[in-house]
From TrEMBL:
<feature type="transmembrane region" description="Helical">
    <location>
        <begin position="120"/>
        <end position="147"/>
    </location>
</feature>
<feature type="transmembrane region" description="Helical">
    <location>
        <begin position="188"/>
        <end position="209"/>
    </location>
</feature>
<feature type="transmembrane region" description="Helical">
    <location>
        <begin position="251"/>
        <end position="269"/>
    </location>
</feature>
<keyword id="KW-0812">Transmembrane</keyword>
<feature type="transmembrane region" description="Helical">
    <location>
        <begin position="78"/>
        <end position="99"/>
    </location>
</feature>
<feature type="transmembrane region" description="Helical">
    <location>
        <begin position="18"/>
        <end position="39"/>
    </location>
</feature>
<protein>
    <recommendedName>
        <fullName>ABC-2 family transporter protein</fullName>
    </recommendedName>
</protein>
<feature type="transmembrane region" description="Helical">
    <location>
        <begin position="216"/>
        <end position="239"/>
    </location>
</feature>
<keyword id="KW-0472">Membrane</keyword>
<keyword id="KW-1133">Transmembrane helix</keyword>
Amino acid sequence: MNNILTLYDMEFKRIYKIYFTLIGILLASNIGATLFSIYNMSSRASDTEGNPITMNVLKSEKGIKYIYEYLIGDLASITKMVVAFSVLLCLLYSLVIWYRDYFSKSKTIATLLMLPQKRFNIYISKFITVTSMIFGVISVQFLFWFIDLVIIKAILNVNVDGFTNVFETILANQNRFSNLIFNQPIDFLMIDVFGVIIAVVVIFTGVLMERSHKKIGIILGGGYIFASIILYICLTAQYAQYVDILLKVQIAYYIVIFVISILISRALLNKRIGL
């Protein structure tokens, strides 16, 4: 365990500056999206009322309706795109975290493979690094949404109980099929927790396949990732109308893909992976 934590510490120190910069950009984007949504909603509401652009129209009783039905929707749409981009960058790092060790001048992978420990510890440390980055982005977004709502409440003098409750004001009112961060516990677990884990292990397996076979590695690795995605889409589409069955199918898919990916990755690390 100590070896894994040591490797994780080494991995995180290599990326923490960029990661915290990403978190800072996410915060700035949230604040910018909040101010833009307020201005945009003020403009739309003023046009509807036939008045000059002013925030006073949103401070009326009728303005509360505009805030809940339109402003929050605009804010959620913009911030979801920013979160999606941030998570995508973290997933792309699932590739970088391996290839950087191979193509760096110091050939870090050589040092890692020769360490007196289980090779799979390298995999676990990289897995913890990437997943903790993604979970960190998702977690801080809840805090940033709270900050967004506090800003809206302060600027527009919103006097509604529970307005700053992120779950009730933002997440509960979103379209279920366009969500990235889900309000329902089972959806949150399946997509934002287990879905993230599966995505990372599949990418890791694809990378290790590519690194283990010189001539056809890229076909094997890319094919594995592509096949995993297509299979998930097909299963979801086939059982989309049957929620209970879909949940069971997705759980089975997650378990099978996770076990297969881990077994393949472990075998490749121990027997085939090299410099």
